[in-house]
Specification:
Strand content: 15-25%
Oligomer: single chain
Strand order of the largest sheet: 3-2-1-4-5-7-6
Order of helices and strands: HHHEHEHEEHEHHEE
Largest sheet: 7 strands, mixed
Distance between the termini: 55 Å
Number of strands: 7
Structural class: alpha/beta
Length: about 220
């Protein structure tokens, strides 16, 4: 199959994305609901990274109907479906990739993401996690629900992570004109947690899992001054 730019892929599959996605993800909507469940009481401003069509926001708005949500996604077609779904809600739509998109000047109570970051390499996440950290208020929470490697021994999981990264690098080298290659690149839970800690997050926890569907939470330290 021809290697595809990630934005092109999601623009193309936007009409059938939800049925396709939920048929392939174990406990998909249950995992997405964990984002709302772990938002602190009083959450008002939320940044949703890779919001897509907004499946995870159903539970968020059920719990916080007046929340102000900024959504970022690389696919304008997906965001169009999100805007239709949540017409009347306090949503700001920001098309663009996570590396360059303007997250807005005012910090957020929470940054959330669901089933999006497994498309990015470890080095790319090392660039993204500090951006998410800086977007939060002191004491704010980051919640990540994603496809991760969980089934096997630690040695087997590390070997699979390494194999997938090698495959990704080969795709990038073979397709130098594709800026962001579309490929699933799940990480192990320990390596994902370590990258969050390296970015400055504290109290990094695995709070939910169902097979390879995992939710992590992490905090930006409160301002003690």
């Amino acid at each position: 199959m021809e290697t595809e730019e990630i934005a092109t892929f999601f623009d193309r599959v936007a009409p059938e994305y939800e049925s396709m996605h939920l048929s392939r993800v174990d406990h998909g909507m249950e995992g997405k609901a964990t984002l709302a469940e772990h938002l602190p009481a009083g959450t008002g401003r939320i940044l949703d990274i890779g919001a897509g069509t907004g499946l995870e926001l159903e539970a968020v708005f059920n719990r916080f109907p007046d929340a102000q949500v900024t959504v970022v996604d690389i696919s304008e077609n997906m965001l169009g479906k999100l805007e239709e779904r949540f017409a009347g809600r306090k949503i700001t739509v920001t098309p663009g990739d996570y590396f360059t998109a303007d997250f807005g000047g005012e910090p957020y109570d929470a940054v959330i993401t669901s089933m999006s970051l497994h498309h990015w390499t470890p080095d790319e996440k090392r660039r993204l996690y500090p951006r998410f950290y800086e977007a939060l208020k002191p004491g704010g929470i980051y919640i990540e629900n994603d496809y991760m490697l969980t089934e096997g021994t630690p040695e087997e999981l590390a070997a699979e992570e390494k194999r997938l990264l090698s495959e990704r690098k080969a795709l990038e080298e073979a397709n130098p004109d594709v800026r962001h290659v579309h490929m699933d690149l799940p990480a192990t839970v320990p390596s994902e947690m370590k990258r969050l800690e390296e970015a400055g997050f504290s109290d990094v926890r695995e709070v939910w899992s169902a097979k390879n569907n995992v939710t992590l939470t992490a905090l930006r330290a409160a301002d003690t001054q």
